[in-house]
TrEMBL record:
This protein's name: DgyrCDS3487
Xref: InterPro entries: Phytyl_CoA_dOase-like
Entry-linked PANTHER family: PHYTANOYL-COA DIOXYGENASE DOMAIN CONTAINING 1 (PTHR20883), PHYTANOYL-COA DIOXYGENASE DOMAIN-CONTAINING PROTEIN 1 (PTHR20883:SF15)
Transmembrane segments: 324-342, 354-380, 386-409
Keywords: Iron, Membrane, Metal-binding, Transmembrane, Transmembrane helix
């Protein structure tokens, strides 16, 4: 570990072999395959290229809290239909796999995450991506510093880049300019949201400011790695990857971490201002440490499931299992939204304890209301049962009265029959005496 930290500090990147086991690699690849299988290309016709920005619509800008699909250049024909199979046409998927996909969440928030080892005290994760680098035409990624796109002050941004297939010179491994992270953000070159967008002159939703650096002046070093390897990347180290010229793909999963106490630029393409739902999502997963490797929520509640299907077109079965966790999530989201609405300029980080406390109190209140309601229902049920048994007793009593009445009526009838007989006997003997007397 010491070597890795030394490498990281000296070169701005470090390689850790065998970071992921074969089953972990497979789980990510299968999860990604399923996402693509479920995706309808007609709904996601956005091309991603780092050379020419063609994602000038809000499909990209609003992808921060969703699972969205970005295609390679040249894969659509004139009619707007895919020329090739969708599985070999994608450039990448982004940018909330680490939140919305249980498999990616598990790897991202696992005990293996080295954040603490590389001196990030309280890391949050603003984005994640699955990059395909398709055989033959997987596009190059131009030389850059991640800080150009993910600007924070101080710049405590670290990328975790995990090879899910061997990354070679032919299929487009990463290249680094070792030590280039020590000179800050070259030319203060930044990619920011276009404040004029949608602009009349057709300019893109994301524009650049500062001076474009000449990264070619650096000495470049290719870093081919075996599948399962992790490359930890300082947010300021200059790096790139070439076009894939081979027959083999180069799938990778990458996510970025930023120190929570650093000030995230409001002008970054991805907004993480307080009132944004997506940040609530990330904060929750990170701050409450819910999606931990041992208890990753796999089966969200129906409400979250709806949200998931809306955001990434995927639903999960058996919603009861994680209902409680997601119930808390809904309350938390609600409280954070209300707070964000009341204080739009406040940062989440400085108010998170207030919000978490409010969420816990609301949660406790809701639980109390549910318990009170249950109690009411149970009392009503008890009363109902008592009345029911009373009615039952009344019925029995009534039936008893009926039987008694019948018995007594029978006896009375017999008695009156005897009386009638006796009366007619007395009557006829009186009649006899009278006749004799006459
Ligand atoms: O995977 C690649 O080819 C480039 C990735 C990269 O530059 C990044 O994630 O910052």
């Amino acid at each position: 570990m010491q070597n890795i930290i030394e490498d990281f500090e000296k070169n701005g990147y470090a390689v850790i072999d065998d970071f992921l086991a074969e089953d972990e690699i497979q789980s990510l690849r299968t999860a990604c395959h399923e996402l693509v299988e479920d995706m309808n290309p007609n709904e996601h016709k956005t091309v991603f290229s780092t050379i020419k920005i063609t994602h000038g619509d809000d499909y990209f800008l609003t992808s921060g809290d969703k699972i969205r699909y970005f295609f390679e250049e040249g894969v659509f024909n004139e009619d707007g239909n895919l020329k090739y199979d969708k599985h070999v046409s994608l450039n990448k998927i982004g940018h909330a796999l680490h939140v919305l996909s249980p498999e990616f969440r598990k790897v991202t928030f696992s005990d293996k995450n080295l954040a603490r080892a590389i001196n990030l005290k309280d890391p949050v994760i603003p984005q994640s991506m699955y990059i395909f680098k398709q055989p033959k035409f997987g596009g190059a990624v131009i030389p850059h510093q991640d800080g150009t796109y993910l600007y924070a002050e101080p710049m405590k941004v670290v990328g975790m880049w995990i090879a899910l297939e061997d990354a070679t010179l032919e299929n487009g491994c990463l290249w680094f300019a070792p030590g280039s992270h020590k000179c800050g953000l070259y030319g203060n070159y930044r990619s920011v949201r276009n404040p004029e967008w949608p602009a009349k002159d057709g300019s893109s939703s994301v524009i650049y400011e500062g001076t474009k650096p000449n990264y070619d002046e650096h000495t470049w070093k290719p870093v081919p790695v075996k599948k399962g390897s992790l490359i930890v990347i300082d947010g300021l180290v200059v790096h790139k990857s070439e076009r894939n010229t081979s027959e083999r793909s180069r799938h990778i999963y990458t996510f970025h971490m930023v120190e929570n106490s650093s000030k995230w630029s409001e002008r970054n393409w991805k907004k993480v201002s307080f009132a944004q739902t997506d940040f609530v999502y990330f904060s929750l997963s990170e701050q409450l440490k819910m999606p931990h490797s041992k208890n990753v929520p796999k089966t969200p509640s129906p409400a979250i499931n709806n949200m998931l299907s809306e955001r990434c077109g995927k639903r999960y079965d058996n919603p009861i299992k994680e209902g409680l966790a997601n119930f808390i999530l809904i309350i938390f989201t609600l409280i954070t939204k209300i707070y964000g609405y009341l204080h739009p300029n406040k940062s989440y980080a400085s108010h998170r304890y207030w919000i978490i406390s409010c969420s816990i109190i609301s949660f406790a209140l809701i639980v109390l209301v549910i318990l009170a309601y249950q109690l009411l229902i149970w009392s009503a049920f008890l009363l109902h049962s008592i009345l029911y048994y009373f009615a039952y007793l009344f019925c029995l009593f009534g039936a008893g009265l009926g039987v008694a009445g019948m018995v007594f009526f029978d006896k009375g009838a017999k008695a009156s029959e005897g009386f009638d007989k006796r009366a007619s006997e007395v009557g006829s003997s009186v009649r006899d005496h009278v006749q004799k007397f006459n």
